[in-house]
Amino acid sequence: MVDLGSRKRITIHDVAAAAGVSISTASKALNNNGRMGDETRERVKRVASDIGFRPNALARGLLSKRSFTIGLLTNDTYGRFTLPVMAGVSEALVDHGVSVFLCAIEDDPALGQNHVEAMLDKQVDGIIATGKRIDRSLPVDLSNLPVPVVYAFTEGTRDSVTFRSDDAHGATLAVEWLQQIGRRRIVHITGPKDFFSVRERADAYCTATGDTEPVLYGVWSESWGHDAIDRLWKRSGDRPDALFCGNDQIARGAVDALRERGIKVPEEVAVVGFDNWEIVAAQTRPPLTTVDMELKELGRQAGLTVLALAEGRPVKPGVRKLPCRLVVRQSCGGKPSED
Amino acid sequence: MVDLGSRKRITIHDVAAAAGVSISTASKALNNNGRMGDETRERVKRVASDIGFRPNALARGLLSKRSFTIGLLTNDTYGRFTLPVMAGVSEALVDHGVSVFLCAIEDDPALGQNHVEAMLDKQVDGIIATGKRIDRSLPVDLSNLPVPVVYAFTEGTRDSVTFRSDDAHGATLAVEWLQQIGRRRIVHITGPKDFFSVRERADAYCTATGDTEPVLYGVWSESWGHDAIDRLWKRSGDRPDALFCGNDQIARGAVDALRERGIKVPEEVAVVGFDNWEIVAAQTRPPLTTVDMELKELGRQAGLTVLALAEGRPVKPGVRKLPCRLVVRQSCGGKPSED
DNA sequence: AAATTCAGAGAAAACGTTTTCTCATTTGAC
DNA sequence: GTCAAATGAGAAAACGTTTTCTCTGAATTT
Description:
Rossmann fold
């Protein structure tokens, strides 16, 4: 059988007893408030640390109405977007002693409701909602909760605080990079038009290229990238000398298709992806230059914001767009390996 | 500014007042214990539900010493293994009202210690440790904690409960499948020999093939799969008619290399991967037949086990190996598309 | 009719903290 | 040498539950 040592937990009573003071004095000593002699304060602190006292967060939370706990709600099963966001949230909050409940609710409203209620019962200080696309909301209503809610990479309610990537900026980065290395016939191969991000990136692409270069809408898969190349090379007229792809999977499919046709990347066609999904981008041959949405930073800011709200600090509602970053690998030439 | 409606939270005092009973009676009514008239009990319950009462888990936990909260500790940044495990844990525990703290500690002992202490302060009922390989332990000592610890897909301490996949079983499944479809010259291309899983799979492969067919050790990347094919096809003697690869990335690299050489998969060479990492396995052309380690089920069992321990139910220590499952796609012929 | 059981319900303690209040003693000012 | 202020520390209430104990009547038994 598994032994827990059945160690009794050490409470402030033990500290008080060991230091020969009252519980209230012990508490005040440890929290650096109240009035007492320096010697007493130091002695209490030393004793507490010696016997390994750690205050019970449940008891503390009961009184302070702060549980130092927040919930991260997501419907992104794959974790493609959630993991970096989660990493950022956690990183920002661990220093404040805040732990994070992760709740994956798929697209199940009942499950979502379940998780939200469980979190509220546990008195979370706030909730961060995140998802897999910025123009869809989670299948659960978070609009009248007794705790602050911040949206990150998912659609929020009016008057809420929402963080998202600036996809237009990312697309502009990509296109301008391709133009800088001298490419002029840039084609945009991307996902389904009903994604807001897709339209936003396509618009930025059109603005940056100056004319309405062809935009090929499809799905988010490698095989669409592959097919798109077939389609482009089948038609007459000038062939592109660069591709800006809507995500790394499409880009990978396109790069593979080009290689199969004996077309050199990046010499004949330069390729830029989107997402910086390491597992795809770094394993493509050649590794993909791609746009990173800085989801970790997004998570960090969402974390700090929900903390601010929980502490009653005022935060202006609205949508905050965070800039993207171009990660240069070898699919455009330019800089050599960076990994 | 963001408005929280500053809704006062409803306590059992409100329920008692609204129902015209004492707090103790209200509590007993809601928990179906104590003695009182049926009418009283029903009235309290109705009132509670009407005014939307939900008990404060902090207060409850303070008394019962159960927080209905567990921690999941991982050093698998990518989430490749953690996400399915987490999904299983969460799925198994949500019905019991248990929420899960996810703590990604990378390989940083200080960060790990931080997170563990934060969780203990919050009185978690137990901790599940998980990681990225079964023969390494987390960079933090979990052996003398006041709460139960269960290990899942990471190395545990002596006398602990550890769940892991049965890699020998998985490898046997793969090889036997290849033999069933008539392949006789099966080569095993796999990862670094210092991984315990690698040795275990290789041993099972040797046992199943009956002789010491060649095992090619390398790294966990597509390019190694690619290189391995180059090496195999450069050397003299019989060419393999099947490959059993140590993970899906290697398998994908191998499949790509075969295609580039004009060798048909699965007609000339059948390929089986390992991991069933959707993003790799399903996007390979042809999609990979691969071994799934059933990490979600592993997580589910780990969750139920830590719950049992938290409730004081006895659990035998030891390593539990869970069977794998072969996911048939098209890289071996056999069944047609299943996705 | 007195003694016993039992149903129904409330009072109070407990969980581990923090915080406000109170009290006794010492210090400083006149 | 008296009085006000400051200092050091403890008592007690509070947070929202659950649980044990106690109390009051009424029903049942002798």
